[in-house]
Amino acid sequence: MHDPTHDYAVNLEWNHGRIGQLSSPELENLIECATPPEFPHGVPGIWSPEHLFTAAVSSCLMTTFLSVADHSNLKIEKFTCKATGTLAKQDGKWMMTEVHLFPELTLSPGEKEERGLKVLEKAEKACLISHSIKSEIKMTPTILQLELH
């Protein structure tokens, strides 16, 4: 018995210059995307493929973490994650060489910091987007404890 496959439809329409618009028949929101300003004719202030790539890794960590936390019965108050994607030349070709994740987890009162860290590390190892790319994934977590007053 094989696991089912899942397809995610994305449409892209070029607008003008180096700007296009991403859409999906499955989603309501449109996302404008463009060449980043570091490259010729790049456009500042618009999501680039590099931003979207970094966001895919970061959002996968969050969704995987929420699933693992739910299964582990870990009570949390807040989850945020800053992320940096590094574009560099490797073997003469541009590629996203690294994504550094900075998740910040606020645990509910009574939850143990070690347990929160363990669930976060388990989620990072299980992230399917991270498994799908060549980039090195680094994680620097911060675990906070919500205190009862």
Automatic annotation (TrEMBL):
Pfam families: OsmC. InterPro entries: KH_dom-like_a/b, OsmC/Ohr_fam, OsmC/Ohrsf, OsmC_Ohr_Peroxiredoxin. It comes from the Bacteria. Gene3D superfamilies: 3.30.300.20. This is Organic hydroperoxide reductase OsmC/OhrA.
